[in-house]
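Data availability excerpt. The first of two example chains:
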Amino acid sequence: MNQQRTEQLQYMQRKIDEINRSTSSRVDIPKLPILHTNLSGMASTGSDIWIEQAILQSLRFREIQVRFHKIPEAHARTFGWIFGRPAPSQNPELCRNSCVGTLPNVKFIDWLEDSTPQTSLYWIAGKAGAGKSTLMKFLSDHEETKRALASWAGSNPLVIASYFFWCFGTQLQKSQEGLLQTLLYEICRQCPHLIRSCCPWRMGPLARDAWSLSELRKALHNLKTGLVESTKFFVFVDGLDEYDGDTREIVEAIEDLSSLPNIKLCVSSRPWTIFREKFGQDQDRHLFVQDLTKGDINLYVRNTFEADSNFLQAKVEDEKYEDLVTDIVIKAEGVFLWVILVVKSLLNGLTNEDSLRAMHDRLNRLPADLEDFFHHMLKSVEPVYQEKMARTFQVAIAGDGPLPVLVYSHLDDIEECPDYALRLALYPIVRTTGVCSPETEAMFMTDFKKGERQMQKRLDARTKGLLEVVRETTNRNELVNKVSFLHRTVGDFVKREEIMSEFTKITGSTFNVNVMLCHALLATIKALPGISDGRFILTILNDLVHPLLDHAYSEEIGQRAAQIEVIDELERSLTYYHPIHFPVSLVLGVPISLGEVLNSEGSKSLID
């Protein structure tokens, strides 16, 4: 809440104190009109603030910051070139073969500070795995960015917002609705005095209602006058190529946003033709990440190697190990993700006491193309893990977004016993409170952490790190940790038709991923204890129940096979854990139309 609202609340508190003092002994009849006026004013102000907060809550969605926190932090001292500072480099040959120290086309800081820019948009482009999202996160949170924007804003208020598209996320993480809702939320959060002017129709009973795309567009259109009068607005939009829809739609949306007064946008994407044509015409207002990161890659490789005791020992024995760093940087061609994977592979070689020649041989055998590298990694999975690898990737693909670690931990059990989830005992709880005892909860969390460590090792063995456990930084409970693709490019790769065909060939035609997911999700629901934080466990259940119903419905319409036993057991489990909190009633033992359940709920939480 901004300074204006803080002052209003302080004013209300002073008035309440005055009223308390004036009425502590007796009521002064002549002062009753003044008292009535003060109370009416406070009631009106309080009502306005309540409605503003309700509107803010309607704009905020649970995943609003999830993608930002999942993006890796920039390696220390990298990306300084974006502000005109060359990356440190100790290799003269590397400097001669890179743009380090010159940076002729990077005028980003000038554009940030420019009070009368010819264009309100700056485009950061780069090929897959070059580090665009990491750079955007770095910029959006850097003090140098804030300083430059403060210079641009001058005495005007400044609103900074960011949105990171994520093609593997929820609908609000990859759509226009999500983008506009996030931007409107940030504007209204930082400038609540603009709420009334941007959406006057919501200053009442509609305050908490869900937003439509047309409403969001109307509200942003209404803000034009407010922004002209009072506010400078800067927005980062990462991953335009991850938009779920016609690319022309998101281009038009960005162009429409850039037409707002007093606004600047920094957007990023892969260098697709449509983005080049729309955003890449001004040489001073775009850059290609892979052309500028040789110094950063050199620094990352050197620092990572020198943090390894085996490398330091090898370096003492043979100075030519330095050449290995240069070879990696040159072969990388600006693709940071490739470098990370290569360095990991080479460090494994050092652990095995590889010689310098063996290290170079290993490097030369690794494909320079990122997708070829992924294929090489899959082929290197041990034969004993091949079928589990294929099943795991099929689950990750069908999951339509990251799934909790617990879901993956049940896959092996279901493979061994198809009825495992149906037979699994419910976690013991105290019937009067609906939660387990503190001792039981502590025991569960100990077992969970142990199982998570085991799952990470299994994923490393079965997927060579292409799937990883991502720890939530926005929630205190480890139960929300999920399994995700190492990078968007990994998801794109394994979804290719020929790769999917390879997985199907390995698992055989009898493997049904929808049924597997129904059972794995059910087992996860049954394995959760009644943790004392009721709202948290309800959130977890909501992340599990909707996907289970989705996959059961897909199986019902695809194979005409209703998952009656699974749905019956789901209802029994939910009734056992949350007889009061869970309002959805499914008919036991009767084939139901899951389409009706899903359509009636839409995107609304099943657990409210």
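And the second chain:
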Amino acid sequence: MADAANLEEKIKRLKKTLSEKREKKSGVESSVELRPFRKQLKRLQRRRRVLLAFVQRGTKVKGEKSDKESKPAPKPAVEKPAAEKEAKAGQLNS
């Protein structure tokens, strides 16, 4: 959820920047100058939407590791007594 909070903060800053730049200029020039900011804002909002959708579904976001989905450590192999190994080897050879 830290990512979502981080995205929220970036979106707030970008909206503030956009509104400040809009106040300074008007017309076609403003529209052209603000295009990269609007694109970045849309991209961040899309990322936030996707992230929140994954969190609601409880699935893993690509590149992010969750505790639920981490695999348990493999159990160590139990050594069988030497007598059993020899008995099996004898059965295979005969």
